Amino acid sequence: MRVLVTGATGFVGGHLVPALLAADHDVSVLVRDRAGYDGPDDVTVFEGDLLEPGSFDDALDGVEAAYYLVHSMRAGPDYAERDRRAASNFVAAADDAGVERVLYLGGLGEERDRLSEHLKSRREVEHILADADFALTSLRAAIIVGDGSASFEMVRQLAVRLPVMVTPQWVDTPCQPIAIDDVVTYLVRVLDVPELAGRTVEIGGPEVMSYKEVMARTAEIVTGRRPVIVPVPVLTPKLSAYWVNLVTDVPRSVAHPLILGLKNAVVVQDDSVREYLPIELTPFETAVRRAVGDGADTPEPKSVAAGER
Ligand SMILES: NC(=O)c1ccc[n+]([C@@H]2O[C@H](COP(=O)([O-])OP(=O)(O)OC[C@H]3O[C@@H](n4cnc5c(N)ncnc54)[C@H](OP(=O)(O)O)[C@@H]3O)[C@@H](O)[C@H]2O)c1
Questions:
Q1: What is the pTM of this model?
Q2: Is 54 left (phi over 0), alpha (psi -120 to 50) or beta?
Q3: Which end of the chain is less crowded, N or C, counting CB atoms within 10 A of the terminal residue's CB?
Q4: Which CATH number fits the domain that encloses residue 14?
Q5: How many CB atoms within 10 Å of residue 285?
Q6: What total of structural domains would you count in the chain?
Q7: Which ligand 1 atom is the nearest neighbour of the CA of 82?
Q8: What does each of the 309 residues of the chain score in pLDDT, given as a tens digit?
Q9: Nearest CA-CA partner of 200 in 186, 214, 210
Q10: Does residue 106's CB lie within 6 angstroms of at least one atom of ligand 1?
Q11: Ligand 1, atom 1: nearest CA belongs to which residue?
């Protein structure tokens, strides 16, 4: 099948492209800077910017299915407005080109639970993409465990660098981390299931746990010790974002919206995708071990607690 991947320079897109090639698809990618794209040789590269209508139409010519894996959080606080515009521009161009199917990967979380700005924006993009002529499959996931995932990187660096953490109470919120390998398997195989065109599917790993547990287990796997995590009611998300900024190298523009999202439970409610794709899910520990590799880039733990900063 002729498929286009947008967001191919990103974490998910970077893992997806080789998997689509391995599944014998004819793969093209849309990137903003051709010179900065280091993908496989047998991919057709188109340069264009979703914020500039007309700059990416050629990428959609003859495409049967497109993956929408774009978000602008790294570009700063007005990401929601940019993501809204990018999705609208994409819908107009994809409908003009007659694209039949689009697959989008967004976030889990219940709209009735007052989603954070970040999750609300991801859901808004989903709604914009759903209001198109093409059939949209929206996949929703919580934190994706893999090397290069901004959310997992934040967890990993906090867990490894801080033996003692004073955290907001929201670390008790439940989530359902999923391995990048499983996300990629779903994204590739959903293409073979026509019944999933036009549907929203929720995907998650085999274990539901609190963010506290995610951090503690990650630290244990990487360093062999479990950190002490002390949730306190007085620590606001804003303050947390400051110390995450001090402790990790995840940019504040990314860390802040992600921390605000910790208040929302992100757990699969409807696992009907498994009727069609009963893939074997990667255990959390295996996913973490794959993500950190030999741990060679693991920084030395710092000896101060988050609350002391
Ligand atoms: N990572 C996670 O834990 C996680 C969890 C659940 C869901 N998701 C969802 O998965 C999707 C992909 O996330 P990710 O982690 O792979 O993100 P990412 O690494 O930040 O990648 C974002 C991609 O969007 C591209 N992009 C941004 N603005 C663009 C524009 N105007 N035109 C064209 N391309 C543009 C970027 O290209 P440049 O290189 O040019 O900047 C980059 O390739 C998102 O929808 C996200 O919500 C991720």
A1: 0.94
A2: left
A3: C
A4: 3.40.50.720
A5: 14
A6: 1
A7: 31
A8: 999 999 999 999 999 999 999 999 999 999 999 999 999 999 999 999 999 999 999 999 999 999 999 999 888 889 999 999 999 999 999 999 999 999 999 999 988 888 989 999 999 999 999 999 999 999 999 999 999 999 999 999 988 888 888 888 888 999 999 999 999 999 999 999 999 999 999 999 999 999 999 999 999 999 999 989 888 887 777 777 777 888 888 888 888 888 888 889 999 999 999 999 999 999 999 999 999 997 644 444 433 333 332
A9: 186
A10: yes
A11: 149
